What we know:
With 288 residues, the protein is an alpha/beta fold. It has helices at residues 12-22, 47-57, 86-95, 110-123, 137-145, 167-178, 237-252, 259-277, and strands spanning 2-7, 35-41, 61-62, 75-78, 100-102, 127-128, 152-160, 182-189, 193-200, 205-211, 218-224, 227-233, 283-284.
Amino acid sequence: MLKIGLVSLESTHVDAYCKLLNAEQGFNGMRVEGARVTAVCPHENPLERMQELQGGYGIEEVYEEPAEMLPHVDAAMILARNGDLHCRQALPFLEAGKPTFVDKPFAHTMADSEEMVRAARRSGAPLMSCSSLRYSVELAEMQSEMARLGSIAHCHCSGPGELFFYGVHLVEMAHAMLGPGIVAVTNAADEHRDLMALRWADGKTAFLSLLRDVEIGFHCSIFGEKGERHTSVADVAYYRRQLERFIETCRTGVEPIPLEHTLEIIRTLTAAKLSRERHGASVSLADV
């Protein structure tokens, strides 16, 4: 049984993972076998949150600092909502060679992103970071139909929220559908929206609409030479499917997403931020 430690507890993702691994009734009737949350590190979270999780999921071990968990867990999940904390929290586990999951967004800067990847490569620690929407049932069904559409030329994704914390969902969905190779981003943004146009080296394009002034869920459309497909993400099985990939990574040491892809996603969001600051000017990923 893999022993997993959680660092930072404020996210609702913490509840989903604890239910999937520790709760008898699971999460929406779903469970993930072979691992258990055995330790938590609140790390700047209130005492009440720690007590809530301990009481609800039978987690006995509590540590003040991430590094204190090292001898007591087989793997770590870094779940702070603030991506600026991820590098500092993840490094002790990566440097010790422990499998580590870093919740989205991987980081807010390329410097932090690259430092975590370097640490993982030095020690051989398997490292995974992604939006759970990458593993949604609906996206998987759409991917299974892509061959019927011929060459895919364009993708359109839409959803709510701000640029890094929620925009990563849209970039991940587009990346899952079109693959790596993004070379440039423009972002026509204002206080209510980020409207991002992405261009791939091979000519593919994507348009990502991040909307804060309307009620909207997450949607994805793809367009190919022989037709189009559209979907909305609704089935929360993506939490289970994502967690299963991480547990498999812990066992095999094989990362499900190449770290180069993870870096490209953060580089894309960074380019979108720069484009916003430059009033919609195109930003090359090579310059980020």
